[in-house]
Design a protein that fits this description.
Layout (H helix, E strand, L loop, with lengths): L1 H13 L2 H52 L15 E7 L4 E4 L19 E6 L11 E10 L2 E10 L1 H74 L6 H29 L8 E4 H15 L3 E7 L3 E4 L1 H18 L3 E9 L2 E8 L33 H11 L3 E4 L8 E7 L13
Parallel strand pairs: 7-9
Antiparallel strand pairs: 1-2, 1-5, 3-4, 4-5, 6-8, 9-10, 10-12, 11-12
């Protein structure tokens, strides 16, 4: 069973989108690293080989100058040790002069092809150094006082090859470690990105399901009322049916408006004006509306002047949502506090209803969130008002929190940045 479970987990891992993306990305990085390593090794080898070629050319130029000046007897008896050689061969193939390390040896190579003055090649069969040691060999036709010669000058590649070998070893050691680190980083980034995508997809699915459920509730109620009236025409009460349908229609309209706002906000299409807004006027106006709608004590004695910068319509929606929420759940009293608090404005709405349990306060601002039956659908809420309120407050640079209970009921605290006061216009000239 354990083996089957392990195989199943491995199949899920290797078949996952995370693994496939990580594998492809790591493969691409590996190809780039291999290409970079090959290029680096080749560049290093060419650079070191060019240095040796320059050294060989310089030695050949010095010898050519001496031979052209008539110094042929012993022009090569100095300068050379086991890391190179020099040899001067007459046109007939006889060795005229040679460096001490190949004295007495025949010509080390063939002359350049007909029509070519010089040729540089890599050889490993010269009679010095370790067996198989590589040299850069220059064969050059030169003119002397007694005729033409072929000059051979060689420089050993041992140091260059050792440097390239060290670079290759270092790259072969570093390559797996770098690839593992890159693969881990890619996995981490892909995992985080996919988690966000999956979370957004789950939120969208949950939002659609909740929205469908919320829309279905008033529609079902309307349909039921109409079906009952049609099935029992002799018992129908058109006035009651119309009032019920109107209530559900109003509720449906509010829900659709809330859904449209959230959709526009998620898409970044919810515009925001930056006007100077007297928040106290909005609060007092909404408080009068609540008093007219329900026999409820709405205490506004602690409301003082407060000016903010923002969208008056959306800030009015914040005030309206919080007062509607308090009105639904208050037993007899709603208390409103508003005033400037340091560099900001504090707006507090409290009710004397059942309150919000401390362990559920953190999720009260989620979409379609409800605490319990006392603050649920039966009271007319869709669970979107506080989510919209938080969104508007946040886009105005403020915060909204659930304050500590003051005996009973719920207490919401909104803090907004203080608005810029407009300067008073100058007095008109007399």
């Amino acid at each position: 069973m354990a083996a089957n479970a392990s195989r199943s987990r491995l199949r899920r891992l290797f078949g996952s989108v995370r693994f496939r993306i990580t594998a492809v990305a790591t493969g691409v990085v590996a190809l780039v690293l291999v290409g970079t390593a090959v290029w680096s090794v080749g560049t290093q080898r060419r650079a070191l080989t060019n240095v040796i070629d320059d050294r060989v050319e310089q030695r050949a130029d010095d010898i050519t100058a001496r031979v052209s000046g008539g110094t042929i007897e012993d022009p090569l008896a100095r300068e050379y040790d086991d890391d190179g050689l020099a040899q001067l061969v007459a046109a007939g193939g006889d060795v005229v002069a040679a460096s001490p390390n190949i004295a007495g040896d025949p010509a080390v190579a063939e002359p350049p092809p007909p029509g070519r003055r010089a040729r540089v090649t890599t050889v490993d069969n010269l009679p010095l150094g370790d067996p198989g040691a590589e040299f850069r060999l220059l064969a050059r036709r030169i003119e002397g006082p007694d005729g033409r010669y072929v000059l051979y000058v060689a420089g050993e590649l041992d140091d260059a090859n050792e440097s390239v070998a060290v670079l290759r070893r270092n790259l072969s050691v570093a390559f797996p470690g770098v690839l593992v680190v890159v693969a881990a980083i890619i996995w981490f980034v892909v995992d985080r990105s996919l988690r966000r995508v999956e979370a957004a997809h789950q939120r969208q699915q949950r939002f659609v399901a909740d929205a469908s459920h919320e829309l279905r509730t008033p529609l079902t109620s309307i349909r039921s009322e109409l079906e009952v009236d049609l099935a029992h025409p002799q018992q129908r009460d058109l006035g009651a049916t119309q009032r019920s349908v109107l209530e559900e229609t109003v509720r449906l309209q509010r829900l659709v408006d809330d859904l449209l706002y959230l959709a526009r906000s998620d898409a970044g299409a919810a515009g925001l004006r930056h006007d100077s807004v007297d928040l106290d006027e909005i609060v007092l106006e909404e408080a009068r509306t609540v008093r007219a709608r329900r026999d409820l004590e709405v205490d506004t004695t602690a409301v003082s002047g407060a000016q903010v910068t923002g969208d008056g319509d959306q800030l009015g929606r914040v005030v309206r949502n919080l007062l509607d929420n308090a009105e639904r759940h208050a037993c007899s009293r709603v208390t409103i506090t508003l005033g400037e608090d340091g560099a900001g404005v504090a707006f507090v709405v409290a009710d004397d209803g059942p309150g919000i349990p401390a362990d559920q306060a953190a999720g009260i601002f989620e979409r379609f969130a409800r605490v319990d039956e006392a603050r649920g659908r039966a009271e007319g809420g869709s669970g979107l008002g506080l989510a919209i309120t938080r969104d508007i407050v946040s886009r105005h640079g403020g915060t909204i929190t659930v304050g500590p209970n003051h005996g009973t009921g719920a207490r919401f605290v909104v803090r907004l940045p203080l608005g810029h006061r407009s300067e008073s216009p100058p007095d008109p000239p007399e």
